[in-house]
Amino acid sequence: MKKLINVPQDVPDEEVEGFVRAFPNYVRKLEDARVVVRRDAPVKGKVGILVGGGSGHEPFWFGYTGKGMYDAVVVGEIFSSPTPDAGYKATKAIDGGEGILYLLGNYEGDKMNLGIAKRRAESEGIAVEITNVTDDVASAPKDRIEDRRGIAGNLFAIKIAGAKAESGGSLSEVKEAAEHANRNIRTMGVALSPCILPSTRKPNFTMGEDEMEVGMGIHGEPGIERTTLQPADTVAEILAMKVLEDLPFQEGDQVTALLNGLGGTPLQELFILFRRIDEILTAREIDVYRLFIGNYCTSIDMKGCSLSLMRLDDELRELLDAPADTPYFRT
Question: Which of 34, 57, 92, 118 is catalytic?
Answer without folding.
Answer: 57
